Amino acid sequence: MSKNDCYSCGAANAMQAFRGRSFNVSFKQLNRMVPDLAGRECTECAEIEFDAPSAERYARAGDELIEDAKRVMADEMKRIRRKLHFTQKSAVQLLSGGGHNAFSRYERAEVEPPKPLFVLMRLLDRHPELVRELQAINECADINALLVQKQQQREN
Q1: Which of these, 82, 87, 83, 77, lies nearest to 120 by C-alpha position?
Q2: Which of 44, 55, 62, 108 could be cross-linked to 50 through a Cys-Cys bond (beta carbons 3.0 to 4.6 Å apart)?
Q3: What is the dihedral of CA 99, 103, 108, 113, to 10 degrees?
Q4: Do 91 and 101 meet the contact criterion of CB atoms below 8 Å apart?
Q5: For residue 95, what is the DSSP state?
Q6: Domain of life, per the record (predicted)?
Q7: In 10 A of CB 12, how many CB atoms?
Q8: Rounded percentage of the chain residues whose pLDDT exceeds 70
Q9: What are the boundaries of each domain within the chain?
Q10: Mean pLDDT of the chain
Q11: Would you put residue 14 in left (φ > 0), alpha (ψ -120 to 50) or beta?
Q12: What kind of fold does domain 15-141 have according to CATH?
C-alpha cells in the first residue's frame, strides 16, 4: 500500500491533497466551523486525513465545542431555575427526583443534565404557567383517585 492509497477503502492513488478548506465539527445538534484545514481526501470514498497541525486544531475545536456546550447548558439550567423561583432542592424534588445536590452539579457543569430534564426546563422557560400543572401532577391527586376507584371496583 502506497502513501497515496486510501487506508479506509483501499483505493489506489486516490488520496488528493487539499489546503484552506473549512470543516464542520459537531456535538449533538451543535456545530462549529474550523477554517483553513489541510490534509488529504480520498476521491473514491471521501475519507479525510488531516495533516498534523490541522488534526490538532480540529480536535481542539471539538473539545472546545463540548466544553462550551456543557457550560452553556449549565448556565441555562441555573438561569431557568432562578427565573422560576426554584431552589436547587425544590427543582430536584419537582423535576428530577435525583440526589439532593443534582442541580448544583448540573449548574457547575460537572454532570450533564439528562436530556428530558433539560428539555423540560427549556419548556418551562417558554411556558412558566406550566409550573402549576407540574406541581399538580407531582401531587398525584389524579393517580390517587384512580387507585381509590380501582380498590372500589375490587370490593364490588
Answers
A1: 77
A2: 55
A3: 90
A4: no
A5: I
A6: Bacteria
A7: 11
A8: 99
A9: 15-141
A10: 93
A11: alpha
A12: 434 Repressor (Amino-terminal Domain) (1.10.260)
CA 43 to chain centre: 33
Cell numbers at 55, concatenated: 488534526
pLDDT in tens, 25-49: 999 889 999 999 999 999 999 999 9
pLDDT tens digits for range 86-104: 999 999 999 988 788 999 9
Look at residues 92, 80, 79 and name the one whose alpha carbon lies nearest to residue 130.
80
Single-letter code of the amino acid located at 57: R
Q: How far is C-alpha 89 from the geometric centre of its chain's CA atoms?
A: 23
Residues in the chain: 156
| Bridge partners for 25 per DSSP | 32
73, 65 in Cβ contact below 8 A? no
Sign for the CA dihedral angle at 77, 78, 81, 84 comes to negative
